[in-house]
User: Which sequence fits this backbone?
């Protein structure tokens, strides 16, 4: 893993197994598809894990070009939808390779609005899903 990721990288991964104390409290993670891997060009919002409503699907795409990953740990990643759709391709290092790396002003405004909505929900202790 150290070949592809460095400490403090943000990733999206599927937790396959959590090893007991005998295993050192380690977790086995999988990043098998484009949905998972190193995160870039987005906004991270932290809220209380108690506000995250358990769901089967934690990936959501809004029709105005913003997608969101809601983690059970209270970490919420908000990013432009185009980053993982038609613009990107996968390379062996699990990083998204973008043909365009610039985020437009409209995309940044949409990201900011969704971020502000998540923060407002969190501030008023409303469930996020």
Assistant:
């Amino acid at each position: 893993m150290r070949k592809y990721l460095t400490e403090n990288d943000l990733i999206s991964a599927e937790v396959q197994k959590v090893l007991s104390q005998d295993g050192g409290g380690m977790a086995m993670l999988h990043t098998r598809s484009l949905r998972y891997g190193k995160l870039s060009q987005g906004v991270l919002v932290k809220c209380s894990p108690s506000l995250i409503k358990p769901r089967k699907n934690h990936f959501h795409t809004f029709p105005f070009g913003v997608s969101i990953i809601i983690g059970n740990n209270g970490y919420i990643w908000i990013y432009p939808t185009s980053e993982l759709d038609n613009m990107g391709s996968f390379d062996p290092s699990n990083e998204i390779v973008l043909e365009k790396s610039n985020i437009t002003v409209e995309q940044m405004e949409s990201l900011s609005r969704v971020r502000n909505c998540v923060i407002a929900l969190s501030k008023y202790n409303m469930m996020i899903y």
